[in-house]
Amino acid sequence: MKSYDFLFWGYLVVWTGLMVYFVILGRKTASVARRLDALEAQAKRGGSARST
Amino acid sequence: MNGSLARPPGFFAAAMIVARKDLRIEGRTKETLLATVLFALVELVVFGFAFDLDTIRRMGPEKVVPGLLWLTLAFSAIVGFTRSFRLERAREALIAVALAPIDRGAVFVGKWMANLALLFMLEAVLLPLVALFFDVNIVGVAGPLVLVVAVHTVGLAALGTLFGAVVSRLGRGEALLATLLLPAATPLFLSAVHCTASALAATPLAVERKWLLLTVGLDVLYVLVAVLIFDAILEE
Amino acid sequence: MQRLYDVLRAALLAATAALMPVALYLIFVNAPEEKVMGAVQKIFYFHVPIAAVTFLSVFVLLAGAVGYLWTRRAGWDHLSIASAEVGLVFCTLVLITGPIWAKPAWGVWWTWEAKLTTTLILWLLLAGILLSRAYASSPEQGARVASVLGVVAALDVPIIYKAVDWWRGQHPIVFGAGKTNPLAPGMMSALKVSMLVFVLLYALLVAARMRLAALEDRLAALEDAAWRSQ
What we know:
The complex is a heterotrimer of chains A (52), B (236) and C (230).
Chain A: H1 2-44
Chain B: H1 11-29, H2 31-50, H3 53-59, H4 61-90, H5 93-99, H6 104-133, H7 142-168, H8 174-184, H9 186-200, H10 209-234
Helix pairs in contact in B: 1-6, 2-4, 2-6, 3-4, 4-6, 4-7, 4-8, 4-9, 6-7, 6-10, 7-8, 7-9, 7-10, 9-10
Chain C: H1 2-30, H2 44-71, H3 74-106, H4 114-135, H5 139-170, H6 185-228
């Protein structure tokens, strides 16, 4: 029936949209967190380790 | 320099100083005015191709001409607003202006007035041209038409000055000005087109009370908000 | 403090996860099918809450922008950018579900009626605000610019709605838009729960986005320090 078709698409759009955004956020957060951890570990090892 | 350290100028005096400075700079080169008028002319020609005179006559000029007029105005004004702040930017004069011991809000009012003056000059050229190219009679309805256009231009100038300032702080911000300004100016635009159509059709202005009051209210609101918020824009 | 945030976030997630099946049950099983439009009307249980959340996000954006301009504390700007982004996502969803509902209901995909048009303009404003952040030369400048724009946009939205509404009055639409039939009781509860779920979802996404913003800030500060200590 046509009406169920549309309903399905609508529901799918909403769900996909929100999930995509959620996943994007998650991946960005993970990457930032990773870089943050790396930097902090580096800083702990001593900034003097870096030469000019 | 044995200037007397008088109190810094009051709000409106300061605004006038800024306005006069901007207009004087403009008066010397006439760059902005020429650029905007030329652009408006080009737009009118393009519209002439896009909607030929026959089609307009058939549809009724009052249906097409108001929109056309305000479209042209909107885009030409955008050309003008960008330049208004680019002036300062190029010479880092904006810092000097910002450091001046005057209320930042007065800077906004000054620039707004200068932009308004330029827009009025643009319109003085544009309206007769539109009447000429698209075969509309503006002489009979000159009074109400001028009033309607003026009231809406005041708001457009305020919004444009505000957004122009914001965008000029961003690198390559000019591209953004139209995208930001036009959606925000929707109520003004709707009112402008509607009231202009009404004026051209020789409807008594009192009929459009609702829209005109809205526009005046918007004008006041936009100026107030801009004055309050201009501080944040001029920083750094 | 960090603990508290984590606990709150977990609670939010739990609440949303728990409520979602309830909402779905109410929408698809419990609520009666609408007489005229049939099943497709059920998209209304998504469309309306999503639209409501979109306008909620504008409010929150206004609060964040004013808060930042007033205090210049980064936290307010995080709220600002989070609400702008999440708001844009929800706004996009409104603009997609709207036509999906409009086609069977009114026979056209799009109509320039007040709510849809205002939502479209809001979308443009939000996109513009986020875009100008990208153009800024420093995060601090981006925050200031976005806050100014946010205040203006948020104040403008109700005015835009009113203006478009009046404008539409001049061009009567053939098909009636807006409120139609009163809601049957089963429908009301489905709508309420659905509304709650989407508000919680919004809060969850904003919290996540704010956390990302805070982390990015810290990363930038650390990278700056590391670069400078060379």
